[in-house]
Amino acid sequence: TLTNGSSLDALPGDNPKNVRGLTGDLVVFDEASRVRNELIVAGFPMTAATNGDLVMLTTPAGAAGAFYDAWADLEDAEWKRVFVGVEDVSHYMAKTIATMRRRLGERLFSQEFGGKFLSAPGALFDSDAIDALFERSGDTWAGPIGGVSDFVPLY
Q: pTM of this prediction?
C-alpha cells in the first residue's frame, strides 16, 4: 500500500483468469503487443467499473492483435496515442543506433526502433506488398482485378 492509500499489484500476464473480477483506476499492460488478446479484453471491465484508464505500452509486434487494433483504429478517439521514436530518445547514441540497424536489418529495426507495424508473424504475404497492389479512392479499392466496393482488408 502506498502512502496515499493506493495499492499497486503486479500480476502475471499469462492467463486472463488471473485478472477477472478485479478492478483498478489504472491498468497498465507492458509489452502489450505481445500480450494475449484475451488478457487485454479482460482488462476492459477492470477499468470500466472505476471509470479508470487502461494503458498499453509496447513496441509493435506485427499488424495484428488488440494493441494493433487500438492503435490503428483512428476513428476511436477514446485512445490517446503517443509515439516515441528512436530519434526522440536523447540517450541513444548514434553509434548504438547504427549498430542496432546493422544487427537487426532495416525491416526489424523499423519495428523495434521505429514503431512500424510489420506483417503479423507467420503471415503468408506481407501486408505492405498487398497494400501496394491496390489503390483506394473513397470507399472503393481498385486493383489488378478491377474496382471492388465495400472491400474490407482481412489484415
A: 0.72
